[in-house]
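User: Fold this, then the next.

Assistant: Folding the first:
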Amino acid sequence: MPTTPATVWTATAALRRVTAAVARLDRPGPHGRASEVATLRAAAGRFVAHPRPPVLMAAVASLATVRLARGRFGRADAAVAVSILAAQPFVEWSVHLGVLHARPTSRAGQACYRIAGWGHEQHHRDPTNMDTMFVRPQEVLGTGTVALATALLGSPPAATAALCAGLGLLTYDWTHFLIHSGYRPRSRMYRGVWRNHRLHHFRNERYWLGVTSNIGDLLLGTNPPRDAVPISPTAAYAHTR
């Protein structure tokens, strides 16, 4: 069917409506600071009260519903789940360094900076501001649509993969928020990721790139002793907040 001015106008109007609907899911702040909460219960309450995390939770719930409807879990599903769990530290590491901290010195770097780097830079400038730390609804709906299509049209293990990826992103969002909250670590594992992420912010943002795990940093050489790297200008600025 040939493209006509009326078709273009209709498509543009539909895109504007979708954009407006997504914007309503991301109500402007201020929504407070993560540092204001000091217990797990209070942190959970603030997490679900912010307009961004519930969008991600709804997407994960949708993926879980679809996967349950696809039938029983088998060995292939277990293999997929273990593979995604093993890949999570390296995915976090790669995205954190290559996208969130992309340097706009090339076309690819400029694109990454416009998509996510600029927003992550604002998070580094004000780390406990709850309006700069969560995955945005636009990102959730974009990737969630692809994941949902995979879960619906692919094989049951593909649906499991989509669900596990969503759970991994939700775990990332929650852990990241909790690290910046006033809750202090009790378990040895959480104490390790808490310490490293704070070094990432307040020492040097080119190191300590893991959030839910330090495995990527340990294996990829970005987990140096604290005093082995200089304090970067961005980290020094954040430390004064």
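Now the next one, as you asked:
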Amino acid sequence: MTTWLITGASSGLGHALARAVLEKGDNAVVTARDAKSVADLAAAYPDTALAVALDVGDHALVEATMAQATEKFGGVDVLVNNAGHGFRAAVEEAANDETAELFATNFFGPVNLIKSVLPQMRARRSGTIVNVSSIGAPRSNPASGYYSATKAALEAMSDGLNREVGPLGIRVLVVVPGAFRTDFSGRSLLQSRTVIDDYADTAGRRRKENDRTHGTQQGDPARAARAIITAVEAEHPPFRLLLGSDALVVVREELRGRLDEIDAWEHLSATTDFSD
């Protein structure tokens, strides 16, 4: 039986994935900052679910969570780094403490979990690490520069990790969701304390009080959960899995634009080598 450890399982994609995993008969360690928010899963599946309070930025709690998972289920086969939150601010508006907390949660939190689970995965020569990114990684919008930076960092780290652990039998999957009907644009969306009026027509338009997307997103978390399970269980899974029709459009447009720019400036790019 496969054992999953899923962070950020209190709502949205994390909760949907935890429920789908448990419904199919697998074990799941479901974590959230407040264990009460995942108590419904533990109550519904007392033999296969373990609810744990976890702040991914707290190294001691990460280690304790991994120890509990190992004691109850014998180890973790699939780690899903889903915990994180959005953040809106023009680059100039954000304070250092705000961006430090964002990176601690969205980037260094997953790193903490990865470093904690890898010893047992290396010992078994098997395991899967799923890191949930965003379409904000390939394309950043006004007010999302810092959030996109955390996800771009997560993807770049995952790319290097994949090449390091692949020869050891461990797989890495980056999930790139578009807009899903979760709390991302609601409860989970933070923003800077400082507001600079000069950015009213750029970053300002995307501040939380001006965002009307919450509750209207096209993406269905339950279907996303099933897609992730399908990819994890595939014999040859992708490294990067896009979720949502909007993700397909955005990422394709961004990559085509980058290729067009490379081609347009190739004449200059190729002039920097030493000449014979």
